[in-house]
Amino acid sequence: MRDRFKEIVQTFFIIVTLVDAAMLILGRMFRPEQQFGYEIFIYPLIYGAIGCVPSLLMRERRELTVRQTVIREAVHMMLLVVLILAFLFGGRPVRREDVPVAAGVAVSVVVIYGLVTLIGWMLDLRTANAMTEDLRRLQQRAAEEDEAV
Domain residues for 15? Predict the structure, then answer.
């Protein structure tokens, strides 16, 4: 449970950081003249929380096959796109002039999802390598103790 919480918190902060960057890029592209107040700082936190919802809902206790994992990740990503666009447009229909913004947001969600997955994989790989090295040291010490006896 503790590892699961740590994973969700880690994912949240990665998402928030990447959402900040995406908001900067999309804002410069679509509305460079627009200025905001301090209330805008809440949106990356909201989007980060929304980004963690599918991870909380879609968790498997058993090991998935590669195909099942790919399907789960695709569903997870589509769910995120729908959730973010629904939040962004407040449930109202997307107008013709909103299509470029909606497309930009959808692409940024896909890119952020990919980056979060890649960063998470890299962090997991680093942890696995550290654990492997610790196991090697433990085995080496056990072999040295066996030789001493």
Answer: 2-148
